[in-house]
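Input for the complex:
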Amino acid sequence: MTTGAAAPSLAALAAAYRDGATTPTAVTEGCLGRIDRLDGRIGAYLAITRDAALADARASEQRWRDGRPLGPLDGAPIALKDVLCTRGVPTTCASRILERFVPPYDATVVARLRAAGAVILGKTNLDEFAMGSSTEHSAFHPTRNPWDLQRVPGGSSGGSAAAVAGGLALAALGTDTGGSIRQPAAFCGVVGLKPTYGRVSRYGLIAFASSLDQVGPLAVDVRDAALLLEVIAGHDPRDATSVAAPVPDYTAALGDDVRGLRVGVPDEYFIEGLDPEIEAAVRDAIAVLRDRGAAVERLSLPTTGHGLATYYVIAPAEASSNLARYDGVRYGLRVEGRDLIDMVSRTRAAGFGPEVKRRIMLGTYALSAGYYEAYYGQAQKVRTLVRQELDAALARVDVIAAPTTPGVAFEHGAKADPLAMYLNDVFTIPASISGLPAISVPCGFSGSGLPIGLQLIARALDEPTLLRAAHAYERATPWHARRPALG
Amino acid sequence: MSAPAGAWEVVIGLEVHAQLRTRSKMFCRCSTAFGAPPNSQTCPVCLGLPGVLPVVNRRAVEYAVRTALALGGRVNARCRFARKHYYYPDMPKNFQISQYEEPLAEDAALEIDGPDGAPRRIGIQRLHLEEDVGKLVHEGTLETAAASLVDYNRSGVPLMETVTRPDLRSPEEAAAWLRAFRAVLLYLGVCDGNMEEGSLRCDANVSLRRAGTDPLGTKVEIKNLNSFRNVQRALEFEVRRQAQALDAGERLVQETRLWDADRAATRSMRSKEFAHDYRYFPEPDLPPLDLDPAWLAAIRGDLPELPRARRQRFVEQYGLPAYDADLLTQSRALAEYYETAVRAHANPKALSNWIMSELLRELPGDDEAALARCPVPPAHLAALVRLIDEATISGKIAKDVLVTMLRTGEPPTLIVEREGLVQVADAGALAVLVDEAIAANPRAVEDFRRGKAAAAKALVGAVMKASRGKANPAIVDRLVQEKLSRG
Amino acid sequence: MIERQDVEHVARLARLAMDEVELERMRQELAGILAYVDRLRQVDTAGVEPTSHAVPLVNVMRDDEVAPGLAPEAALGNAPDRRDGMFRVPRILEDG
Ligand SMILES: [Mg+2]
Ligand SMILES: [Zn+2]
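Predicted:
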């Protein structure tokens, strides 16, 4: 393989390592070379751990040479969203308040990747504290969409999605709270999977909204997403919300057969405001599934429409609590003041960006005396209704198919109004607040050459069915193989 | 008691925080040991580092359940943790994981003796689990300190908060209740009760109302009551202060006051512009507890006899005066000690006397550890009393023997034999000593003949002295009487 | 409608220093978002249980076992200010 070309899939990589066609060092150097050449324009990374990556690659190379690789991910260069704690490597959440924070521990998912032999290339950019849908709200720099540098890569895992799309990493981990893996995956033309809440440990994932956050893979194809999920999924005694159920063999669940699969298409996801090019691409994708033997039926999910408002109460409320710890006392930024309260208030004012402050304010208000029931309490009840409705639908069908986003990647600065930005998440939020697994796979391109994502949602812990459907679709279509022309 | 001036009725409720005797902290595996160097017993979890998650310590739950069941409380079928928000640098997350709407247990009670000796049932409104905060050290006093230092060793130590109903009617009664509550915790083995080390901390709510009226007066909260004495003194001060104010026609403000033991006064903490707004909401990182009835039943089945029940039994079973029973049941270890001794030698009252007058002079009866370390095991004390009862040694000699026992840990028989302390009961040998005493004390003989019966005592004393205490005093007394009356 | 003093109160609760201009901008933005979110009030949720957790787990507990934590040097590694092995903070005035 030449070091200049976009990288292969993880699955192909393992075969090449086994055959000696290439080596972890060569592939890692290839990624680092592309980062050197291209990341100045894309801005996918906040930090590149070059020396550690090369050392890890050499160790992996030795294991492959000895015929004792740690698994299919051994030697795979992977990028991590900078909300995942890495021991000894700054973890910033793209926020000034954590600019100099160096965790003394690894997140469980990071430890699992390391144990599987993965080579960690660096930490990717995001909207500050994962609050946003464009990766414009990073305190350090925005990330650009590899398909069109004038446009956003989506968010908040925009750095991870852009890195994978641009070949600056073979795969990446992101986090999804209201769509933050799926939406940037759709914008960047890659596969993004949000696992069932509780499927993957959150220990070491810097919390945005605890009851919603979930770590998941961004990859060039469905098989790679399955490979990564298999490594990071599973019970973690450090996370009381992690599920103890055994981890299935996700790659074995792939295949291209969807005969008998029941696919539900909800009317409410094809509404006014949906880009007609997206509607057409998604309806074509559903037709592909039908042609391959799936039974497609219409669904109605009327409560889904309340998802966005529900989310914009619950997520900020939990965020206001989770972000209370950034006070300049134990770590992170400190701005001196007259006394303690003054120090804390100035530190937080200087350390958080406008979107984070907005959400902290909104969440604090929603939890404050006299408003709790009307906002947080009511939102948690509506959440129950949204989930019940999705559960009922998924009792009839195996997966729900819908667009991932209402529009394609927009231009930088186009969504200055916070509410307009929030509307981006309207299709991804229902699965988030219900804790259900969902995936976005490339399903076409707009006339302007921008990727479009098909979203599939499955029952809790039924990632095997989700992956099977996504994989079958991917096998029948060419979209995932397209790469942006970056030179 | 220190009755308030006029016709005011005192209404007191206590809020007690007890540190549970677990090995590890409430939500992480750091040690709870007291007295370690600053910040040497911390981890990412109890430092509130970004990305960490709590996991509940089962033993802390078990201890709280044990306490609740022992006090006749209702353990809630379902309970959950909640976040309580306020900013303070000793609290690493700026929220405390506590319980709010669904506490572990409610509606318990603890009986104490009322002023007239009749039992008074003091209601316990709720009992819940929470985490402790760190320790603040001020550089100077709180008011003058330019800075403060924080040690997080204590952060995350499990606390059980117990809130009484406002059923207490005097400062004395409040102190008595706290003593009784502490004894229960010690009996249950759930708390070491050490108030100096902060294992047991008490806040009080006090208000006055016109005797016979229902509505409660303005409530004042007093903090920092770190000993029984301070509880009583602070409440006495506060009752006086409030009574004087009310007598003078002033209005009291609802406020929090701090007890200053050095100045023997309460003083207002900075007055609050607005009430605290803790913004409680269910802790999303901790699934609810839905405690297994079988587990609760097992804990219930394992409950020890509580102090009051044991006291009652001591009176009935051993014929002890209430005073003795009260002292002997002050701790489970002491009561255990006593009963073991009685089983070894059935002279309940004599053993009670020896424990109360001799043993408790050497060690505190509520100090379980000290009792466990006591060099005189109950079997040895029982053997000592048996030696007296069998007239092998006199009570006076026994006291000397006990001194040696406490020093060496040896059994009394060994000491008595080695030191030749066996009582002289041989009338022939004693008669010689009596004759010598009569010969040496003509004055006493003269007095006796003139009708001063007490003079015989001086002669008995002389014989006891000559025998170095080994003479059997009853026999000596009989011999003296005989010889003197024979004239 | 969210008022200026509400915004001020919330900013104080959240420990966010804001000047007049920021407070007013924040008021407008919050008002816009709240106006959207207020649609939730119309949803009939009588008898509906709130969802706090997306997974139906209960009784997740761990054994009471001690494990080594961080060395004090590591615990204090990120401290903005420290002294005598402790985290140092400016003087504390009770509540504000
Ligand atoms: Mg408390
Ligand atoms: Zn800890």
